[in-house]
Automatic annotation (TrEMBL):
SUPFAM superfamilies, A to Z: 6-phosphogluconate dehydrogenase C-terminal domain-like (SSF48179), NAD(P)-binding Rossmann-fold domains (SSF51735)
Span of domain 6-phosphogluconate dehydrogenase NADP-binding: 2-153
UniProt entry keywords in alphabetical sequence: NAD, Oxidoreductase
Protein name in UniProt: 2-hydroxy-3-oxopropionate reductase
Domain 3-hydroxyisobutyrate dehydrogenase-like NAD-binding: 156-274
Pfam families, A to Z: NAD_binding_11, NAD_binding_2
Molecular function via GO: NAD binding; NADP binding; oxidoreductase activity
PANTHER family: 3-HYDROXYISOBUTYRATE DEHYDROGENASE-LIKE 1, MITOCHONDRIAL-RELATED (PTHR43060), DEHYDROGENASE-LIKE PROTEIN (PTHR43060:SF14)
Family: Belongs to the HIBADH-related family.
Active site: 162
Amino acid sequence: MVGVIGLGPMGAPVAGHIARAGFPVRVWNRTRAKAAAFAAAGHPADLSAEVVLSALPDVDHLERIAPDSVLGTWASRGTTHLVVLSTTSPDKVRDLAARLTRFGIAVVDAPMSGGDAGARAGTLSLMVGGAAEDVAVVEPVLRTFSSTVEHMGPVGAGTAAKLCNQIVVATTLVGLAESLDLAQRAGLSGPQLVRVLEGGLASSAVLDAKAAKILHREYSLGGSTDNQVKDLRYAVALADRLGARLTQTREAAALFEETVRSGLGGADHSAVFETVRL
């Protein structure tokens, strides 16, 4: 049995892929209507699964719904592994792993990249941290919704890799927003410029996924600006601890922070265009 906690834009398709691959799935979601397509637990403690996946936004959300009493119940019902699919900080993952060790539950961090489109297609890229023997246990489940599963090192290493990924996403998205803003001011056709970019070195998954949102100024999710800010804060905190400059990342983070302050935190992170174009 596989348990999935959190049925948002990423968690719901992930649960669907796992079920279609033949694994029995049980889910928990705060909004019960979203769990209607699956065997749903009424309370997190009611999950009975060997492997539990958390697709909640951060470890903080998981810890609020899974205090020690819930963890003890999971362990008594046979839970052996918990996989964190969220983007968070390496320290939070390691602290969670230390806490769950007391219950005999191993933690693997496997943050997802590829967005909601990748989740729906089952082509996510996972950066995995954990002991090799623990990764081996959960890997068959992870591969049901991912095309890339890369074991980066011990617990926390997957999360550090995801923060590196988010640096590329955020700075590329800002660059795309600035490019389309400049094109507009220069009297160029935005769609024509995008076609040119797609055919050259500037082509990227970010361009493919986000150019149309910016061109139409339509910012349905996707990945939210709030979450982009969260991820960049974690990346900057890790950089500060390790002595990395991250000059462009810090500038991009300021633009996303401004976008949140303007009221667009719940919009797709391509809404940074609205800040860039001011």
